[in-house]
Specification:
single chain, alpha+beta, six-stranded antiparallel beta sheet, 11 strands, 17% strand, rod-shaped
Length: 420
Amino acid sequence: MPLPTVGARLVGPLVTLCLMLAIQAVDASGVPLVSLGTMLLLTVVLAIFTGGRASGVVSGVLGLAYFAYHYAEPGAFRYSEENLERLAIDAVTTGVVLVLLGGIKQRIDKQAAIEIAETERQRLSAIVESITDGFFSVDAKWRYQYVNCQAEQLVGKRRDELLGETIWDAFPPLLGSPWELELRRAVATREPVHFEAFYPPLDSWFETHAYPSADGLTIYLREVNDRKRAEQLLRARAAQQAAVAALGQVALEQTNLDVVIDMAVNTLAETLDVELVKVMELEPDDKSLRLRAGIGWDEGPVGSALVDNDRGSQAGYTLLSGDPVVVEDLSTETRFHGPPLLSEHGVRSGMSVTIGGAPRPFGVLAVHERIPRRFSSEDSGFLRSVAQVLALAVERRKILSSLAEREALFRELAENLREV
């Protein structure tokens, strides 16, 4: 019991004892018993309102016992008729006061306790409602007991829809998910759990902290989509850099340009997770581009399909603009139309860059999807890096071809000189 409570319960009895000592220390024989009875009642009232009914009973019993002793006839516990009557009246009065005031004090204390509890509840509720995390609690049967406003926004349901429902009834997809596994583990081990998981119906990642108790679980929920996207972007960027480095190494070691082109096509399809990839080579007449290599296309077009080199096609537009061209939805594109090569394969989105530059580019490198897709600046940067490696491979092949031609010419000259 807290010390302040103990002290409050002792106030009344201590005052009663002080009153006894005062009577004992002075000659109180001349003090009317009725006045002393009034003093007793006052100490009982004080005891009740400071320490409760029990404290009042102690004060009353102490006071009445002392008065009975003090006003008894000397040498025997006998009383005059008047004093006996007054003692009886005081005893009854004290009892009535204890019953009435004790009941009133009990009701006052109960109401005060209710008000304190309500104030504390409101204070805690205000704190919980102000936090930026979703907060909810469930009982031992997994029924929602409390849901704050942030949790409502995160899960897309009102608290009146959730309170009283079990987690598994309110969100059936949680069954068999990491949430069920981890939350049940927290309850079974009575140890807090912390985990991150993706919830497909809301297309969101959530960080979850769950704290078990004898009454159930307290759960904090936080959406971490931005952090997960950043982590995925970093991983994708690292994978892209590694892919470019590997392709560059092959381009330096491989003299067969087709091998480098095929590796570039496969690298793009795997790293960007796209359905179609193509390398369009500019024809000698500069009027069209030929599908030299690709992934996802029918067998017939690869090696033979031609696209006009003008602003009517994405490939031609890319060569003329010189900048990366990104298409989110070909059906709403206004800069150019989709040539038969794209429309026949159900292409809806894509991006393209030139391979090489002045004085004459080699062609166009492009990726496509059959659904609308928004490619990021990192994606287009990766595509451009692969195109630059291909451009270096093309230039290296030209240099090697030129060196081979010169070497053949020197051999021919040397043979002619020996004959002379």
